[in-house]
User: Fold this.
Amino acid sequence: MLSRHEMLPLSRAGVDTMGCRDSLTNCPSLCRPHQGVPVTSRRLSHAEIVASVAPDTPDADVESVIVDPRHASDDVREFAKSVALGLTDTPPWLHCRFLYDDRGSKLFEEITRQPEYYLTRTEAAILEQNAERICRVTGPVTLIELGSGNSVKTDYLLKAYSAGGSSVRYVPVDVSETILHQAKEAIVERHESVTVTGIADTYERAFPLFKEFSPAMVLFLGSSIGNFDQRESHTFWQGLSDALSSRDYLLLGVDLVKEEATLNAAYNDAAGVTEAFTRNLFARINRELGASIELGQIEHVARYHAERQRVEIYARFRTEQEVYLAPLERTIVVPAGTMVMTEICRKYHLKKMAAYLRCFDFSVEHVFTDEREWFGLLLLQRR
Ligand code: AVJ
Assistant:
């Protein structure tokens, strides 16, 4: 049987590449990645995932697991296709999701420690002060976190929800599997009664599982929502609204509109970590797609545009670069001076955001903020 600190690759419904069709509880040890099966080669059905996460599962040994439904080769092709599409588009862009490979996730963590990057520490302080109150409002819930990263801020919530030894299920969803494993290790060590079920995938692909976790509270922190443009945001909220059950909760962190100088500094730290973060996207294209972009020729450009209420981040090509994409056997020429958009980071007004979310059947239960009103934490309930 599976022990508490085990990691197990699961997957979405359908394809079964290993011919291992037994339910998780009957699954032989060949399914365990550390016993020789690569994490991405084993797919379990939806029912198996449910069996592993349902609170009343007969096998009480099945506890902390990492779910990875992806196929490594699909991922690389998907990445190459997205890069080709973005670089040939007018104006050119790259999808910000690809910023978060293992190295990118590490660099982002380093960004959060920079003095200019106030977002993470401001949000953490709000969470620290209000975690118990949030817990009293929602009562016991499964905590599902989108884009969990290293889950450090979540610690305040885990502490509040597991107070007095209450058992809590924590479901982090993140595209970086490495970071999920690290977070899981740290959490199971710190919190006896917390069970971790990590899902290494995109948010949308994890949505269909959420009904199984109800009553739940989805955590979407760090103003990650700011990365979506209007269309993506609309699709995301509709999808999440559909995925949740009535009376489930949502805890949303949003960065608020403020003085331009403060915003510009946050995305242009003096130590150059944000620049390294932007550059890593091109290093990743080199590493994974076989390109040889000269990284020294990539300049990080980030500025707040008040009229659009967002920081826009670009990679400016100082010289022309030929970008060879091995999976597609294709070369894309990027002229000198090209500005490739890599991220938008939208900033919000609390009242407008609350009104927007009401359109997706979320009601605002509480709004928490800091003294300077730099960051907002909204506690919402699915109606
Ligand atoms: C992780 C999306 C919230 O927008 O502030 C930080 C990403 N990019 N510095 C943000 C980021 C450059 C960050 N989010």
Remarks:
- Residues 118-138 form the longest helix (21 residues).
- The longest strand covers residues 298-305.
